[in-house]
Amino acid sequence: MFPGLGRQQPPLLVWAAVVATFGGISFTGAQVTGILANFTPPDEYTTFPITVSAVQGQCVGGTPVFPVVETTIASAHAAMLEGNLTCTQLVSAYVQRINQFDAPGPNAYRVLSPSLVADAATKDAQLLALRASGASLPALFCVPMSIKDNIDVAGIATTAGAVALLDNIPSADAPVITAIKNAGAIVLGKVSMSEWAYSSYTSVGSVFGTVRNVYALDRQSGGSSGGTGSSVSANLALIGLGSDTGGSVRDPSAYQALVGLRPSLGLVSRTGIVPLDESRDTAGVLGRTMEDVATVFGTLVGADPADPLTERYVPVANVPSNYTQFLNASALQGARIGILSHLYNASAATQNINDIFAQTQAIMTQAGATIIQDVRITGNSLGDKDLSANMTLNDTEAWYTGYGPAGKWESITSCAPQFRHDLEAYLAVHTSHYKSLQDIADDGLYHPTSDSRLRMNLVQGNNYGSTTDYPTPAQQAMGLECGCGDFYTNRCRAALRQALIDTMDGLNLDVMVYPSFLDPPRFVGDDLGPVGEPAGWWIVPMAGVPATVVPMAFDDSMPVGLPTSIQMLARPFAEPTLISIGYAFEQLTKFRRYPAGFPECRGIPGGFTIGAASG
């Protein structure tokens, strides 16, 4: 704790567990069982007011260890090759910021990697050899990355935000972690998230409380990759990994002035990631620039024998050798951009958001783009109404099936047993002594805000058994089509995907766009206020197509200026197009500005040693 700053600490037993993990101390089975058996979740986590001015008082004086605020991969690599920066210095600079800023600020980090010192020293030796030989640096050489706490990193618990999984310590890295390490990256630490990835708006969990928005610490960070978003935006990591099922990379990026990329389903391995709905889940990248995001994304793409979706699609997706080749600052010239006005209710948006989105369209037009207004996704191979007839699109995730009197709207996002089925498949091959959702529910080892949804998932799993049982034969006899399955096996998802492609082809569109949110982030603790998220949150993953968010102008009508962003979606495997147009808009506008509460950190007299994160 810092003098004058208030933060309610997690429960004592959880705090002890976190501190032990910070120090790299391993638990015995009996210790874990004792911690979990005696844990009683509080009714809620509350926060005391924390002001930006209070946080700004930290980490000043002395000389910079290394100026990392808004540092990019390219600028860090240039400093290394010039002999002005070592890997240890770079990692130390980020750890210094985490120790000073994280606890009183965003509360993003759950644990730092216990191997940081050794990892940085190894990179220093490699750097000397690379400089001596005149070789270039690997794409992610010594890039310190924050990793969402549902992605397996060997030797560090993967909790998905839940106390129940504190003993879930994987012996192997997830393939996406192997990929970034092979490209030279350093895992800086695991960051907090919305428990079980349940929320796209807030990141609250039983392991480490609430993650805060770095532009306004009394507001929500976005979820479920909120820890990644807050850590990267506050320059507590160079870049980070999250996961996205229904907005969990895009939403924290939108809330915190980041570029976020959710890739096409089938390009990036899902193995070793605690699932929410494996048929929609994917890892994604959150960064401060499109160039950094494209650099990291290129290392993630590849077939994984343990993930049949990547085995099916990577060989046919025309994967380029790298994605940075598509960084074209002139890509708006001649681009055709569709405004998906049907996906959001402009009349429900704040006037400021409407004005900013109109300004964005004007900027694109001035840069040579053609804007096509009021685009609607049309066509349906399963019925005589299409998505444009769904007048409650933002509230009803439905697809129309059937003709005439037999026609009906069906939920397209409902696969009742999916979470239980997928979670238990993950637990079966991992070290947590919990192997079933029922046992976790019985012991209550999760945050109270997760209770109603977790118990609903439990009931659904009990009623339907496996994903192949939904819809049931009786439901199918009633004419229900939508249910479980991937975008190529679920007929409703396949119809949506084809309708989206046909709409873009018919209008010769490069991308379709809409504002990421129509309302500012909720205040911490508010789970009922409006969020104004357009229907792209579910259309993108259900169709399996890629999407990116890029900062628009700040909404300076708020007491504290808050970020806004534009979301762009494209055809399956059209990440090159998204990267090109997103980069061109970013370079033209440069709307991102770093959060004022987290200025450049200064050196600590007497030197600095990599250590555990505070608090």
Automatic annotation (TrEMBL):
SUPFAM superfamilies according to UniProt: Amidase signature (AS) enzymes (SSF75304)
State a single Pfam family of this protein: Amidase
Q: Which PROSITE patterns match?
A: AMIDASES
Domain Amidase per the UniProt entry, residue ranges: 90-373
Q: Which Gene3D superfamilies match?
A: Amidase signature (AS) domain
Tree of life domain: Eukaryota
Q: Which family is annotated?
A: Belongs to the amidase family.
Q: What is this protein called?
A: Amidase domain-containing protein
